[in-house]
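Question:
Write out your own:
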Amino acid sequence: EIFGYRMHGCRRALCIMGATFTCGFLLLVLYWKPEWHVWINCVPSTIEEADVVLLRTTDVFKRYTRKVVRWVDLSTATDKPEHPLIADEASLLNRAIMEPELKVREFQLQKSSGEKRERERERVSHYKFQNVKLGPGAPRGLDCHETWRAWVTPKEPNIKQLIFGLNVIDTEVTPIWKLLFKEVLNPFYVFQVFSVCLWFAEEYVEYSIAILIMSAISLTLSMYDVRQQSVKLQELVESHNHTLVNVWRKNGGFKEVASAQLVPGDVFQIKESNMCLPCDALLINGGCIVNESMLTGESIPVTKTPLPHLDRSNPWKTQSSGDHKRHVLFCGTQVIQTKAAGKEPVKAVVLQTGFNTAKGELVRSILYPKPMDFKLFQDAFRFLMCLIVIGMIGMIYAVCVFSLSGESAGEAVMKALDVITIAVPPALPAAMTVGIIYAQGRLKKRGVFCISPQRINICGQLNLICFDKTGTLTEDGLDLWGLIPAEENCFQNIHRFNNDNNLPWGPLLAAMASCHSLIILDEKVQGDPLDLKMFEATEWALEDFNTEKQTTAVETETQVTVIKPGSKANWTPVLGIAILHQFPFSSTMQRMSVVTQEIGKDELVVYMKGAPEMVASLCSSATVPVNFSSELHGYTKQGFRVIAFAYKPLKLRGLLKTQNEGREVESDLTFLGLLILENRLKPETVPVLEELRNARIRTIMITGDNLETAVTVAKNAGMILGTSKVILVEAQDPVGSTPASITWKHRNEKTPNGLLSTREIYINVGTSELQSSDYHFAMTGNSFKVIVQHFGNLISKLLINGTVFARMSPGQKASLIEEFQKLDYYVGMCGDGANDCGALKTAHAGISLSEQEASVASPFTSKIPNIECVPLLIKEGRAALVTSFCVFKYMALYSMIQYIGVLLLYWQLNNFGDYQFFFQDLIITTVISVTINLNHAYPKLVPYRPLVRLISPPLLLSVAFNIVLSLAMQTFGFLAVQQQQWYSQDIHSACMAVPQNLNGSLISGNVSVDVNVTGNATEDSEEEDMSEYSSYENTTVWLLSLMNCIIAAFVFSKGKLFRKPIYTNYIFVLVLMAQLGVCLFFLFADIKNLYEGMDLVCTPTIWRVYILIMLLINLAISLIVEETIIENRRLWNFMKKCFKIQPTSSYKKLRGIVLRDSSWPPCHGTDYALQEYMTVGESNEAYCNAVYEHDEDLEDVKNKSATTVQNITIHWTTI
């Protein structure tokens, strides 16, 4: 949301005065809260008059960003104004330019859109801000070619350069001084500076120096880490900014310029291999093969084809049947080979530059990661606010006590300010991050790397894990199981592949040999693993098309790929096959095809392979076997992957038809047969899924494979138990007047004769055992899309028991995870990096099993090539989360213990001594907060998760109870010591106290202590040797509070269930024993110099025993309450039932509703949508980056509803 403001002189003056009176503190507050800065200095205005805009995100965070609107003078880019300045008259830029000044108003931002933060430029046009990150483009493919041939005016690149900026991904390494400035202005460090200055003023030098040293070390490590990441990121993008390209200029031909000078609309030449693309571009002439591993994580060559010259009314993005990405070259990908079309060079037009490219989005996803709405940090902030309020109460108390006692105002203020630094411990944030750092180190040792450490805590709350199938649950490679040819409308005998049984010549062999996207690179055939397996089984050879020219009867100079029979192949009547044209595989279209020609013959043949259902739908029904469905389902239910083949002869003129009209040739084909491939489960899959199931963590499969295959793999892996029922959900888009429909089918396992069947068995819900929760929904990506659009009221209920989601596109995977998150699930996603980037980024915890560059977009990357990393991450996350709670409770209680002691001593105008503070703060608390985090994760996943809220009743009760217990103990000690017979306010020693003799003196050994008439004892030593802090109350309260901190650390450092037992944390146990030993030494030692240095006084032995007894009682009560009440899950569950407390998570509420609904799951039959659930608005967007398209299917629907695309823009809210 965008709000316009205008600077106001009077408000600005008042703000300057306020900053002066507050010694700059007001400026610091306005630095932290940019919206306050705008509200104080500006007045609201319309967008056209605004010189400052305030941006507010629409997510749950509602974060504000302040941006200044500036003027861009375009007159410097042209000596004589031309009209229009931009050749494309319909361009947004022409409408945004204000004439005759030739200026444009703009602002730049890094915005948080919930999914990611983006760096974009906005323009002010017609009183609204519009995003111009997209390059100009005509709506139709034919218009695109005609426009880009001669649309660039001589001055246009210069004008665009001013507007769009340089084509660079600027990841400048921030200077040390700037990093230091930003870190120091952090509220945490500001509070530390305030505390240290106060302590220096009170001559509390030792601890102040210690805090300064610790802060300096922390700052140094933080800046070093940030700088190292900046350096690595700069190395990743450095090559992008230093590339030379040939750009076409009007009346000047191609001209070599630096890639930084590219602007949207520039046409440049791709003239060499191994070229790293410097921008996102649309291929308009020729073809090329690229490596997109930087984006997808899969190092497989991808074929790119030029945008067809099609004269259609729909936008170019939708002309390729939803697969526009095969025409787009993405920034950061590497060109492996180029394929010129005739004499024309390979050309592309720039679509995106800089941070708006695919690589730019990848980089900024690292720079500005998705903010996580994790309640722990919100609750910690609220709790800190409570501590501040308590500290303010203590400040008022201190001012009253010292003022009424006649102390100076300065002394009273100093003592009051001291209270706030005690109530709010400055080391709290740092102490809470120590556990995360330790967990990150342990994960690194186990081969799991993390680029977002704060997400480790979130891993402790994961209760739903989504898995990709191929390469994640199953092995990467596929083994050929067999081939089932089809002839005369019937399937033939299965052909098994072995060394002595090669496939005979025929259309099926030709299809296997030619229908692929393999290439020769470094003298080796490379490509998709499935294509490699299939091609190797034919025993044919692939020749580098760079050495083979087209010698067929087709008149074209296009280079071709040639395949020939190998030495081990069966006899064939052909010399070879030339692949003239290729329609690359599309996950959206679920198929690929090639146009081929036998060498020496004139006939052209189209070969196709793809998903069996898709291939069969494009074949003549007379050629598809009658038992096609049952045969297919029979193999997919057994977990096999099935590929279908088809072919069709063409006439010679058909080649030009394929090049100009797209994939219309893929119709009325002849069905050839099915290729059966086996994809085995990884040995670690079953035990890991069983471990997650025993821990009550839901597991979901999201795959692009066949639905039946996915269900079978889910059953074999244990994701669906053998006794569970599977309900197939099929949804269809509306057709004509028929509304969208959804059909429910029960997946049958076997017929009475033992054969697999696909007969629909309808569910009679009224009498079926499926009324329990022992059933699972399975659906395809298309069904999921239809349900979201037309049956939105059912999607949540389906997800409660949805387990298998097949044929899912990358965008649908991410959308599905978002739907689960809406139900308050903490979702983890584990994938091999191929097509999973969007889902990995969307999930609370994305775990990539790929070591490719795409893994940098995932919060976690595992070198363990299987899913064993998932339970490991959950265990460490739970341990880190419990540790954070433990440290927070301890630090909060420690501050309250010290706070209570100080306020008690303030009553007598006394305080703890400097060395007493130093010992308690540094030697006790700091060491404990560092070592208490060393507990390792418990090796077993228990069937419940740790608490996620600091404000949950058990945690609040634990902290509150221990605060009250500490208050009672210290208050009792403070009052009880004053009632002792040996107590004196004048003489600070009672070590030798014995019963009085007749002469009114106290005798003990060789020491004689006289007693005056007032009952005050005097000692031979001089009273001036005692410090101003020494008193019986000081000694008693300090010793009680000191050992109370040790008791709290012991009680809170729970181990088992989520962490290993406390005795396994050897360093922490040794620290506690050493600290306890020193404290007991302080309690029972009778060393004058030691007591004087620590501001202690000697007390009778019996009183020391009393102190020890009070501490033992405190320990016993704390342990009993913690174990029997705080950690008693049965008790809390019983209380929930007694008070009828309803669950807060949406999925728990919905699960209860579903269990009580006798009509769910739905009855047999088909349901129809009564009305369109989702209203689709118009969209002008004609291009999106492939890696982060979360709603690509929704975009297709939007494009269907839009008849024309006038401008490629994204409109923002106008206020």
Remarks:
- The longest strand covers residues 640-650.
- The domain at 481-548+555-654+666-678 is CATH 3.40.1110.10 (Calcium-transporting ATPase, cytoplasmic domain N).
- The mean pLDDT is 77.
- Residues 362 and 805 are 27 Å apart (CA to CA).
